[in-house]
Design a protein that fits this description.
Blueprint: H1 6-33, H2 46-52, H3 55-66, H4 71-83, H5 90-110, H6 115-142
């Protein structure tokens, strides 16, 4: 039986790759404008770019980094849910909620970057993740 929870997982993976491309397309021209020659860089890190580039040019890459953080828990819990055969119905809807909220978070962070809006979206997505985790625990421990 197909597990519907896998669809939002694939969408979030694809979105993460879109954000990476977006970050590259914004950051490279900003680096050129700042006189940074990437061919000559050695051992630099993200904080170096934060000091050298305008904040708005860094917002998409900051969001990409955020997509490497909490969503890793989402991927793991979605995998557990799919493996236990409980990835349809409410769990699929919670997963879609999580992914939708994370995409909205990305759009806010990479464009106008209001922290209070990001915080609300992050909080709501975290509620979805907590619910998914509880459902995964119920499936694994009370099968």
């Amino acid at each position: 039986m197909r597990q519907a929870i896998l669809q939002p997982v694939v969408v979030l993976i694809a979105w993460t790759l879109v954000v990476l491309l977006w970050a590259i397309l914004v950051r490279m021209p900003a680096m050129r404008a700042a006189g940074i020659d990437v061919r000559k860089l050695t051992g630099s890190k993200g904080s170096d770019a934060d000091r050298a580039l305008p904040p708005k040019a860094q917002w998409p890459i900051h969001n990409y980094n955020h997509l490497m953080e909490q969503p890793t828990i989402f991927y793991a819990v979605a995998g557990v849910i799919a493996l236990t055969g409980t990835g349809n119905g409410a769990n699929a809807w919670l997963a879609w909620g999580y992914v939708t909220l994370r995409i909205l978070h990305s759009l806010v962070q990479a464009t106008f970057n209001r922290v209070i809006v990001r915080l609300a979206l992050f909080g709501a997505s975290t509620v979805c993740l907590v619910a998914l985790t509880l459902h995964a625990a119920m499936a694994v421990f009370h099968g």
